[in-house]
Amino acid sequence: MKLATYLTDSGQRLGVVDAEQSVIFDPYAASSAQAGGRDERLRTMEALITAGPDALADLRLLAVAGTSQDDFTTPLSEVRLLAPLPVPAQFRDCSVFERHIRDGAAGMARVSARFQGRSPPEPVSGDGVPAVYRQLPVYYISNRFNVVGPDAEIVWPGYSKIMDFELEIAAVIGQGGRNIDASRAAGHIFGYTIFNDFSARDRQSVEMTGWLGPAKGKSFDGGNAFGPWIVTPDELGDYRDLKVCVKVNGEEWIRTDMRGMLHGFEEIIAYISCDETLHPAEIIASGTVGGCCGLELDRFLANGDIIELDVDRIGILRNTVRMSGDN
To answer: Where is the Fumarylacetoacetase-like C-terminal domain (predicted)?
Structure first.
């Protein structure tokens, strides 16, 4: 299933998307026709996820019959989609793609040199991937409140002039747990969505010298864009063979796939849950798919650009970037 969050007169609502028919089904309203009355588990995405597997099973049964009922469906063109999980319980972002780790570091060195008025550095010998990235699925914790959805306008922070994007895949945790074995980790994933990790590269290039990871380089209002919906694992299939594409103002910048992960989501979940409890409705992002950011392409966004992240079997996450006027 494709599950979305959209805005109604009564607030946020969970919806089941029929992409072929371009309609969205309201399971909460449809549940009013059932004997038990409206099912509060089906009101929002967070309520559905935290209610557990039984709620998802009941939603499937309701959706099979409901998507053909006009009383509970609305054309997608008539609704405003929000981030599928507007305020995740927690949000972590990893870096597990070998190509991005290698080429992103070289790109950051270029940006830093330009920012400081120096000549670009010479290429570094070796494979350019620090050993720790092969040993562990390195991650940082980001701001779960800086979340926006599809078609949102991202107002660039006034302290930055270098606007960049990052195409990532994010896993949404459905079942919590602690010390989860990698062999069982797939069962803890509720679904997958697209993540655009907007990045202020000039600020990030300075902050990364402090050895604490990105701060204001990635933490600003609207910096975390998710969408257009969450796709359940049974419909998505194997995330490792997803095809991805980035377009800016309709021009294709890169087309590639998800190959090259040093660690899969199963290993990531096992590592994060080591002596730490994972909770339902947390989001874990993969890190940038190799080649899918301006830092690697040496090509950055401009004021007013429309960026589309297209991921096979999920959909398209589209956003616009604007300078704040203080840049």
So the answer is: 135-322
Pairwise CA distance, residues 280 & 282, whole Å: 6
Residue 224 near residue 257, CB atoms below 8 Å: no
SS3 154: strand
Question: Given a cut of 70, is residue 5 above it in pLDDT?
Answer: yes
Helices (H) and strands (E) in the chain, counts: 9, 19
pLDDT in tens, 161-217: 999 999 999 999 999 999 999 999 999 999 999 999 999 999 998 898 898 889 999
CA 61/CA 280 separation, integer angstroms: 22
Residues shown for the chain: 327
Backbone angles phi, psi at 289, to 5 degrees: -60, 140
Dihedrals phi, psi of 195, to nearest 5 degrees: -130, 130
Contact 303, 320 (CB under 8 A): no
Residue whose tokens read 């996820």: 49
Burial-class residue 268 by CB neighbours within 10 Å (0-12, 13-18, 19+). Answer: buried
Facing residues of 5 across strands? 14, 82
Q: Is 244 helix (H, G, I), strand (E, B) or coil?
A: strand
User: Domains along the chain?
Assistant: 2-82 (no CATH), 90-322 (3.90.850.10)
Cα separation, 28 vs 30, in Å, equals: 5
